[in-house]
């Protein structure tokens, strides 16, 4: 049986999504609430921040599995917050999706240059958001499994040499 991604909603049979944590960063409370409502059926732990500075503090306190990051915010833009998170060793592997009302090609380029893993324009389409979030959370989980496996291989390799 083949799986057709256009045939219907993506299921989460492999399970990593329900235990994941997502940080929604937007200076507009209504936008945060809407995105949170879109994501509620995933079963993820969701928290929010009102700007880039709060986002950095939140990620440093407890790294999420995914960040949904608005571009235009006071104090620190999404581009700046993304670049800072991607430049730190402890947070560089956290997937970041930039969300913006901007629709210029150079904005997409800036998002990519700052390290964003994906880019969605507002108003956000619920199906598109859910599909990308699921995909990036699966990639994040696979990356964590790979890192754990590599750590085990290193430990076993070091133990057998002694």
Summarize the topology.
Blueprint: E1 21-25, H1 29-39, E2 45-49, H2 52-61, E3 66-70, H3 78-87, E4 96-100, H4 105-113, E5 118-121, H5 126-161
Parallel strand pairs: 1-2, 1-3, 3-4, 4-5
Structural notes for this entry:
The protein is an alpha/beta fold and 162 residues long. The protein has helices spanning 29-39, 52-61, 78-87, 105-113, 126-161; strands spanning 21-25, 45-49, 66-70, 96-100, 118-121. It contains 5 helices and 5 strands. It has a 5-stranded parallel sheet, sandwiched between helices. Helix 2 packs parallel to helix 3. The longest helix is centred in the last third of the chain and has 36 residues, at 126-161. The N and C termini lie far apart (48 Å). Mean pLDDT is 87; it is low at 1-12.
Features:
162 residues; alpha/beta; 5-stranded parallel β-sheet; 5 helices; 47% helix; 15% strand; disordered N terminus
């Amino acid at each position: 049986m083949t799986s057709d991604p256009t045939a219907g909603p993506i299921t989460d049979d492999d399970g990593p999504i329900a235990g994941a944590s997502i940080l929604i960063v937007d200076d507009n409370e209504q936008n945060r609430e809407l995105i949170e409502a879109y994501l509620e059926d995933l079963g993820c732990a969701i928290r929010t921040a009102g700007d880039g500075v709060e986002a950095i503090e939140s990620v440093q306190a407890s790294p999420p599995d995914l960040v949904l990051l608005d571009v235009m915010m006071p104090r620190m833009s999404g581009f700046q917050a993304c670049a800072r998170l991607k430049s730190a060793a402890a947070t560089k592997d956290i997937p970041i999706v930039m969300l913006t009302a901007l629709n210029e090609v150079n904005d997409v380029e800036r998002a990519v240059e700052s390290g964003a893993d994906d880019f969605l324009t507002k108003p956000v389409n619920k199906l598109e958001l859910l599909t990308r979030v699921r995909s990036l959370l699966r990639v994040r989980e696979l990356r964590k499994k790979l890192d754990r496996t590599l750590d085990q291989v290193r430990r076993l390799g070091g133990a057998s040499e002694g």
